[in-house]
Amino acid sequence: MKVVEWIFAVLILMGVLFAVKLLYMFATVSVQPITQGAMFVPTANIRVSTFLDAVPMSADDLLVDIGCGDGRVLRAARKRYGVRAMGFEVNPMAYLIARVRSLGIEGIQIRWRNFWKVDLGDANVVFCYLFPDVMERLAKKLEAELRPGTRVVSCNFPLPGWKPLEILSPDSSLHDDPIYVYRFPDSCRL
C-alpha cells in the first residue's frame, strides 16, 4: 500500500472511532436525568460468573437485570441455567448492543424502559449494578414489590438497611469489589 492510502485508511478509522464516541456521549447525556450520571460500563465476566456460581437458578426462574447494559448477565444466566431473563435499559446505545447480542436467543427479553416504572414482583432474582446514590430508593422499591424468597444481587454497593446473606469477592485483583447477595424479606429492614 502506498503511504497516501495508509494515511487515508487511518483517517477513516479515526473518523469512525470519533463518530462512535460521539454516539456514546449522546446516548449517555440523553438519559442523564434518569440515570443521574451513571454510564454504561459492562460488568466484568469474572463478576458475572461469580454471581452465577453463588446464586443457582432453575429454568422456571425469572432473572431481571435492572440497567442491563449489553445484556451479558442475561445471556450468561440463560446459557447456564436456562432461566427466563428480562433486562431493562434506558441508554439507547447499550439497549441496541444488548438487543443485537441477544438476537436469536430464546427466553431473553430486552426492554428499552426505565425500571423505576416497572413492577418487579414477578422476579425470582433481581440483579443490579447501580450507583450508590440510588440504592436507598431501590431498597424501598424492592421492599414494596418483591415476593418472599426473591433473591437480590447488587454489585459494588449494598442496599442500605438490608443485611446480605453473603458477600462475594471475585477471584480477581482487578474486579474484586464486593457482590452483595440478599433474600427478601429475610435480608431487609421490614
Tell the overall outline. Answer: elongated
CATH topology of the largest domain: Rossmann fold
The residue fraction in helices comes out at 25-40%
Alpha-beta classification: alpha/beta
- List the strand order in the largest sheet: 3-2-1-4-5-7-6
* DSSP summary: helix tally: 6
What is the architecture of the largest domain at the second tier of CATH? Answer: 3-Layer(aba) Sandwich
Mean pLDDT across all residues, rounded? 88
List segments where confidence is low: pLDDT < 50 over at least 5 consecutive residues: none
CATH class category of the largest domain: Alpha Beta
Major sheet details = 7 strands, mixed
- What fraction strand? 15-25%
Describe the overall structure.
- There is one protein chain.
- The protein is 38% helix and 17% strand.
- With 190 residues, the protein is α/β, with parallel strands linked by helices.
- It folds into 2 domains: 28 residues; 139 residues, 3-Layer(aba) Sandwich (Rossmann fold).
What is the element layout, followed by pairings?
Blueprint: H1 3-30, H2 32-35, H3 45-54, E1 62-66, H4 72-81, E2 84-89, H5 92-101, E3 108-112, E4 125-128, H6 135-145, E5 151-155, E6 166-168, E7 179-183
Parallel strand pairs: 1-2, 1-4, 2-3, 4-5
Antiparallel strand pairs: 5-7, 6-7
